[in-house]
Design goal:
The protein is of the alpha/beta class. It contains 10 helices and 13 strands. The protein folds into 2 domains: 21-110 and 227-271, D-Maltodextrin-Binding Protein, domain 2 (3-Layer(aba) Sandwich); 114-220, Periplasmic binding protein-like II (D-Maltodextrin-Binding Protein, domain 2, 3-Layer(aba) Sandwich), CATH 3.40.190. α2 links the parallel β1 and β2. α2 (38-56) packs across α9. The protein is elongated and about 60 Å long. 38% of the residues are buried. The model is unreliable at 1-22 (pLDDT under 50).
Length: 273
């Protein structure tokens, strides 16, 4: 009886170690579990799923979540092998706040902000005292203002990190532009109603409004892997070199996937190298 009791205890201990902590992940070597938001992330993964199976014999399981604050907690706990939903500033904020033992595996795509106008066809024609309509989300301000600075429209103070910049940090504004803040979901409507001289719209909202960011925007965000707002795949520390993770990244960065995203999202989502 004593031996039986010890054996049962050992069994439960082994199960506990397998299911909790210790850098363990959710799946076996032929199954990859990735959490993602519905669009565009899970749609991109759905397109990658048969390719991953055909080329690497890996079964991709996609868990669609809608609460941003669950994703990294679940990954840290080993409930999934990876997640795909966030850009770098959000990821870094989560690490700072919660101390999760997770890392960026690769940058995959960008949903570029663009500036749109019903009346202006060239950046040099932005009028004096023009109105720029932007998101009222402070988290977007540094991104939006950085795009204007790169285009030479304004200049920001050297004393502030660009990601943290607000309109108060503008030190040069030759056109004396004013900034009107509204809810992000109303930006496309503002453009359609010909409000303001320029309207800053995120890629997804632009697509919903029938706009093609690469063709219709007056100014567009730079698309490259170094852009801090690139959406990333994240994994647990110590699993960066797992074969199934590397296979996923290879598929996501393939020409086939780039073509799919180009056809499906028409510039509202852009894959990065």
């Amino acid at each position: 009886m004593k031996k039986l009791f010890i054996g049962i205890c050992a069994l439960f201990l082994a199960i506990g170690l397998t299911g909790c902590g210790g850098g363990n992940t959710a799946s076996d070597e032929k199954t990859l579990t990735v959490s993602a938001t519905l669009d565009p992330h899970s749609k991109i993964l759905e397109e990658a799923k048969p390719i991953l199976k055909e080329k690497y014999d890996i079964d991709l399981e996609i868990k669609v979540l809608d609460d941003y604050y669950i994703f990294n907690k679940a990954l840290d706990a080993g409930e999934v092998d990876a997640n795909y939903f966030q850009h770098r500033p959000f990821f870094e904020g989560e690490l700072s706040e919660h101390g999760y033992k997770i890392v960026e595996e690769a940058g995959i795509h960008l949903e570029p902000f663009g500036f749109y106008s019903q009346t202006i066809k060239d950046i040099k024609d932005i009028p004096e005292n023009g109105e720029v309509i932007i998101s009222n989300s402070v988290a977007d301000h540094g991104r939006i203002l950085g795009i204007l600075e790169d285009a030479g429209v304004i200049e920001l103070s050297d004393d502030v990190e660009r990601l943290e910049a607000t309109t108060e940090d503008i030190v040069s504004n030759p056109k004396n532009l004013s900034f009107e803040e509204i809810k992000p979901e109303l930006l496309a409507t503002a453009y359609q109603n010909n409000q303001g001289d320029l309207v800053a719209i995120n890629g997804n909202y632009a697509l919903q409004a029938g706009l093609n960011p690469t063709e219709d925007s007056l100014i567009i965000e730079t698309v490259d892997a170094d852009n801090p707002y690139v959406n990333i795949v994240a994994v647990q520390e110590g699993h960066e070199n797992d074969e199934k993770i590397k296979a996923l990244i290879e598929v996501l960065k393939s020409d086939e996937m780039k073509q799919f995203v180009e056809d499906e999202y028409k510039g509202a989502v852009v894959m990065v190298d």
